[in-house]
Structure formats: C-alpha cells, structure tokens
Amino acid sequence: MKLFDSQNKEVEYKALNDFVVNSTELDALEAKLGDFNLFDVLGVAYAELKHSNTLAWLFNPEESHGLGSIFLQRWLMRVLHASEKSPPAVTPVEIDAWNLIRVEVRREWQHIDLLLILTLEGGAQWIVSIENKVQALQSKGQLQKYREAVQSEFAFAERKIYIFLTKNGEIPEDDTYLTASYEDIYYTLSETRHMRRHSIGHEPSVLIENYLRLLEERFMNDSDIAKLAVTIYRKHQRAIDLIFEYIPNNAKQIHLTELACQLEAKKGSLDISMGPINKAYVRFIPKKWDIPENRMGVAWGDSNIGVLFEVECTPRGVAFMIVAGKPPQSWMDSLPSDFSKPPFKLDTKYRTKSYPRLYGEYINNYDPSKIYDPDEAGVILYNWIKKRLNEDDMKEVIRLVQQQIKRIPEYIDELIP
C-alpha cells in the first residue's frame, strides 16, 4: 500500500527497516509490555475514578490487600518529607510514631476524590483530603473550595493535610496543598508490598502487581521502561516520527487503514489505481481516470492526480466523495449545470478554491455509533465501495467526470501552485 509521497522515500524505508531489524531494545521493551494487565483489559489505564477507587482500597487498613495501614503511613511520610512547606502540617516523625486506630475512607464527599478520616489513640482525629488528577487539570478555585468545605465540616480535627496528587506532580493553585505524584504511589507500594509479602493473599497480590506494572509503564518518567523508550527513540527517531505521522488517531481512522489494505489488495478486480493515503483519508481513481489529463495535478504530492475519489471519516459517518485538488478555477466555473443535479450532489458551500467536492454521499451500511472490529469495518467499507462502483448511476458519474477531466489541459496555466 502506498503511504509515502515524500521525495525521501528511500531514506524513510531505510529508517523503518533499520528500526525493525536492528533494535534489540525494542525486543526488550516488547517483553516488558507483553504481559497481561487487568487495567488495560478493562480500558481504565487513565480512568481517574478507577485510580481513586484503587487508592481508596489501598488506604483502608481493613481491606483485603494485606498491607494493613503501612501503605498509607509510608506514603504520607514520603509526601511530607518531599514537601518544602514550613512549618509542615504534620512531620514524618509524627506519622511514624502514630498509633492509628481507625481509617474511614470517603469517596466523592463534597466532590473531593478521597477524604480520609484518621482516628488515633486517645480519640484525636486527622483529616487527609486528596484531590486526584490523572489527565485532567485543576479548575480555577477548585482546591480552595474543597479546603474550605473540609475546614467547615471538620473544624474539630486536630490536623488537616491537603494533598494534590497528579501524574507528574503538578503544582497546586492553592498553596495549602502538598504536591504528590504517582511516582510516590509506585515506590511506596513497591516497598510496602515487599515488606508485607508474606501476609498478602494471592488475589490481592495479582491486583497489586497489575497496578504497579501499570504505573511503571504509563506514569513513571525514570523507570526501566521509560529509559528503554528514550534509548529507542534516540536511535530511531526518524522511523518513529514517521510512524506517528501515519498512525491513526482513533478507531474510525483504523477502519480507514483496513479499507486501504482491502482496496490495495483488490485494486485489479476493481479496476482502480490507489492514490495518496494518510491516516485521515483513503484516495483512489478509476482506471478510466488514470489518463495524462488527470496526472497534471499539484495538490497531492508526486502522485500528480487532479481528480479522485476520497474516503474520509466525519462525525456523521464515512464520507465517499469525488474531490478536485487545486483545480483551475475556470475549469470549475465551466462545469456543466448537470454537476449540481442528481446523480451529482455538489453543494455550493463545498466549492472551495483548493479542494472542491464534485460529488459526495455517506456509506450507508456503516454505523458511526457502533463499535466494529477493525477487520470487519474494513470489509464493510470495501464491500459498499465495490458495489457502488458497479451501479449504473455511479458508472454515469464516472463517465461524466472523465469527460470533464479531459478538458483540464485547456486551463493548465491556471493550476494553483
């Protein structure tokens, strides 16, 4: 399948070949990432609520994880030790010496992600308020609002600790809050799991192992995985940048990639030639349009195609169009009035100077709201296009467009550079 239209095709192919053949680090990275992970299977690797639920489980000494209160204790000590606030709300020494009797974990109290009510020996209560942000950013005034709610409801509490937990230790707008990162969670959980390894049951151990691996793969900047990734990128930057240029951004674009593979494999039986392709568009021309008059274009790189079929994913569905790439304006103006009547569906609002659409419809057997397997989606789209190209009205469209393509040389001096 033709993906590269750059003048540096040979260099790009060489970079890709070198990437897949000469990267021992890539094999090592794949080995680390290849294990089953429950959080990936459930699709919640970056789901803030799921992380908060997992932390609520870990913070509660009465839960089934077998860590007791040591994870909560060591995590608070780590966060407070790293803090530069003076004087601190609580010192790590005080936490190390506490005699914790009970922990109540509240989720979404007053919209606060995690609220811990700690009861110590003698009845004293401490409050730990945690705002958790995995990918979202803090809203203006959000942290202050939560702090004021805690101060109002728990005025009697002996100590109040406010923590802003983010993926990379984002600075909180409210300077009462301590900064914490998921790196702190990772190191504390790794340490305490080892300390209590003989008291952790099999099922909790599996969950904790999955969570640690998730944090290492997705949240750590200095893990072995991160170091391998940096090494690979430094050695193969050109190839990796090229891959990201063409990789689809979403499921519908993956479906277009599968369609392109189907069209490429069966272009002979369809009597088409493939046009320039990227992650957002699949393009092709009927063989009847693969004539010198339609190889004078300037819009799509070294393909030189002037008019082609274009398939694009839109919010409404997958659009099937005929598009002219930077055509002579006089040629556009000279198109017969029939081009604004059935079977053409030329909408004047699409008659842009650079990429006017001569024809367009939606592929009606593809439901944009449905979740498809990529292979299934590719076959659905291909079968629709195959059937459409063989219908009489589309054959007439192709014939009429071919007639107009043959007139393009009359306007060659007006081609938009």
Describe the structure.
The protein is an alpha+beta fold. It folds into 2 domains: 41-218, no CATH class; 251-414. Helices cover 42% and strands 17% of the residues. It contains 16 helices and 10 strands. It has helices at 9-21, 24-33, 38-41, 48-59, 70-82, 92-97, 142-153, 182-195, 202-218, 224-235, 237-246, 251-265, 267-270, 329-333, 374-389, 392-405, and strands spanning 100-109, 112-120, 125-133, 159-166, 178-181, 272-274, 281-286, 307-314, 317-324, 357-362. The strands form 2 sheets. Strands 1-2-3-4-5 form a 5-stranded mixed beta sheet, with helices on both faces. A 5-stranded antiparallel beta sheet has the order 6-7-8-9-10. Strand 3, helix 7 and strand 4 (159-166) form a beta-alpha-beta unit. Helix 2 packs antiparallel against helix 10 (224-235). It is elongated, with a radius of gyration of 30 Å.
